[in-house]
Amino acid sequence: MTAEPYRPRRSVLYVPASNDKALAKIAQLSCDAVIIDLEDAVAPADKVAAREKLPAIFANRPGANHLGHRCEMVVRVNALASEWGADDLLAAAKFEPDGILLSKVATPRDILEVGDVLDDNSAPDSVKLWAMIETPRALLNIGAIAELGRDPASRLDCFVAGTNDLAKDTGVLATPDRRYLVPWLLQMVLAARAGGLDMLDGVANDFRDLDAFARECADATAMGFDGKTLIHPAQIDAANRAFAPSTAALTEARLIKDAFSRAENAGKGVIALNGRMVERLHLAQAEKLLAKAAAIGA
Ligand SMILES: CC(C)(COP(=O)(O)OP(=O)(O)OC[C@H]1O[C@@H](n2cnc3c(N)ncnc32)[C@H](O)[C@@H]1OP(=O)(O)O)[C@@H](O)C(=O)NCCC(=O)NCCSC(=O)C[C@H](O)C(=O)O
Ligand SMILES: [Mg+2]
């Protein structure tokens, strides 16, 4: 696997395809990506009409911002086993979204089958697959699913935690501190890293409580998530802040970079910096962080 340039996915907002007012807002939002939802945000009676809005939605695809980033457009389709899934997939693929988010994934086969459909329909390689990790079977199979990320032909690019469905299907209590979900969230991060995938945290349903939301973002950052899925525009700024490198981390990264660039440290694998051991792996980490900060203008 070669390292790809950093693509920010700090804030990823679900927008129900059935909600015209919300759809009209997309161009003004400062989130890194939107997920046009055909799945759980859309009532069964509205599913077909929601899918028929895709041409108009993609006709208004946002352009690049001042840093050259375009808000990614991803479509979440209904489970392939459902009556809508296959048609959703073919309809979404036509608009060459940045990603197609598969709901209720259970096994690697679910990803491979969709990849085959996209290949058969000549979808360009730029159309990636994102997978919801929201079923007990997905969690049990997560290592094998993540392994697909190591093969670019699979198109698998990103995992999204579906904590609402996980709580529903397992009976786990979703407490404000998410203590019973944390082991599974960490397992998702680990698997995503093994497969070279991005990993997005699940949604915070209580969208009016921005203090609780900021705490949840801080926890997600500490757990290693790349960003958070959101349900309301009010959550965007806090997510963008939380998943950006902190000032302290950037200061530390610059110190490490400066130290290794000094003549006396040339060729050294390990140095002492302010009483701490610093290795070249820390330099690589620091350079990655600085590149991330540059990409988001932090
Ligand atoms: C939760 C909501 C139903 C709340 O909507 P509403 O009461 O209309 O909120 P506001 O009045 O505060 O909205 C203010 C304005 O912002 C716009 N808005 C609201 N939400 C969005 C959005 N998601 N994207 C874009 N714009 C949005 C409103 O239209 C208002 O605009 P205006 O009137 O012009 O000022 C609603 O926020 C909502 O529907 N959110 C998304 C819900 C959703 O997509 N759910 C499914 C995904 S979550 C999930 O499935 C998790 C996962 O699968 C799991 O298992 O965990
Ligand atoms: Mg779900």
UniProtKB/TrEMBL annotation:
UniProt record, GO biological process: oxaloacetate metabolic process
Assigned keywords, A-Z: Lyase, Magnesium, Metal-binding
Keyword Lipoprotein: no
Entry-linked SUPFAM superfamilies: Phosphoenolpyruvate/pyruvate domain (SSF51621)
Gene3D superfamilies xref list: Phosphoenolpyruvate-binding domains
Domain (HpcH/HpaI aldolase/citrate lyase) ranges: 10-233
A Pfam family per the record: HpcH_HpaI
GO MF annotation terms: lyase activity; magnesium ion binding
Cofactor(s) it depends on: Mg(2+)
Endpoints of the signal sequence: none
Binding locations of substrate: R76, E134
Top-level taxon of origin: Bacteria
Binding residues for Mg(2+): E134, D165
Record PANTHER family: CITRATE LYASE SUBUNIT BETA, LYASE BETA SUBUNIT, PUTATIVE (AFU_ORTHOLOGUE AFUA_4G13030)-RELATED
Family, per entry: Belongs to the HpcH/HpaI aldolase family.
Name of this protein: CoA ester lyase
